[in-house]
Design goal:
The structure is a single chain. The protein has 403 residues and is α/β, with parallel strands linked by helices. Helices cover 25% and strands 26% of the residues. The protein contains nine helices and 21 strands. The strands form four sheets. Strands 1, 2, 3, 4, 5, 19, 20 and 21 form an eight-stranded mixed β-sheet that branches. Strands 6-9-10-11-12-13-14-15 form an eight-stranded parallel β-sheet. Helix 5 links the parallel strand 12 and strand 13. Helix 3 packs parallel to helix 4, helix 5 crosses helix 6 and helix 8 packs antiparallel against helix 9. The protein starts with 26 loop residues before the first strand and ends in a 5-residue tail after the last strand.
Amino acid sequence: MATPLGARGTARPATSSPHPATDKSPLVLSGATVVLPTGTVTDGRVIVDGTRIAGSAPDHAQVIDVTGYTLVPGFVDIHNHGGGGASFTSGTADDVLHGIHTHRLHGTTTLVASTVTGDMDFLAQRAGLLSELAEQGDIAGIHFEGPFISPCRKGAHSEELLRDPDPAEVRKLIDAARGKARMVTLATELPGGIDSVRLLAEHGVIAAIGHTDATYEQTVEAIDAGATVATHLFNAMPTLGHRTPGPIAALLEDERITVELINDGTHLHPAALQLAFHHAGADRVAFITDAMDAAGFGDGRYMLGPLEVEVSEGVARLVEGGSIAGSTLTQDRAFQRAVTVDRLSVEDTVAALSANPARLLGMYDTIGSLEPGKYADLVLLDHQFALKGVMRRGEWVVDPQLG
């Protein structure tokens, strides 16, 4: 892993868990406020048996008193480019594992690795590496953000490498991912865009509308063709106008669309976030990080694909041009901000960070809520909603910090 130029700190080696469980006996987390799909329970408990949540506890189960704390499901991030000084687009397998682990320390127990625009052969090669990690269960799949996006709304993507979404080239990436492609972001108004959406839908891959200059009508056409996600709604697309509503209105109004939101206080004004929740409803919002290498690492200079990025006071911008270049967000911060700044309910925040993205990935039968039979993926929060513990599949990634 290359340490970013000027970044603070030293990159740590990747590990599967800093706190591997040594006691595999059943565990009862007792006395917490527990957020369940049916509502919030005070003085509740969550029982962990092996890798799963259990419905009852045997007499010999270990009991940990977490009275005064809140238990929520592990966070599910469907759009993440890296962290801890490591890039999912350019790093080695060990680098990627380190980035994954960095986000696990912040409560993200399920993560889709996102790439940025690159040469097609290079992206196919990356897909091969990332698909191996998906097969091992380290990531939940691959998200290709670019190269099939609009040069008018390229954001932090290299314009020289952009191309129209030719279905044959989209298919090349799908095939390279060996069944682990989860999502492709497209500017669906470009030549081949609608046919590519149909191709993705036929192969069970999410077609996401983003980095787009589409009109309202073109966006509706793409949704009807099978698109189901808005890539970081509001960002890298035309603004909402009263005569030219553009893609935002179409994406908000259609019940088939899940809207991604980056809740870092930089990408969105709080009023825009409230607008999305009001019009889409809490069951159609997925909070994402869109994180780049600097997440969980520090300020400095980094590379995002072939482009140089300056991170200052936690905000990432291209050195040339100044465009926002992803985020340094972690999902624990997104949770805390949603509840304490945006004044969302804990239940709606859990939906946006866990349940909704789990459903979108088709994984809600195993993750996304604290129910018996599902993986024991959970986050322990204090009364200020600061992270105090993380468990993934029954093992502590962050030991409970109580007292």
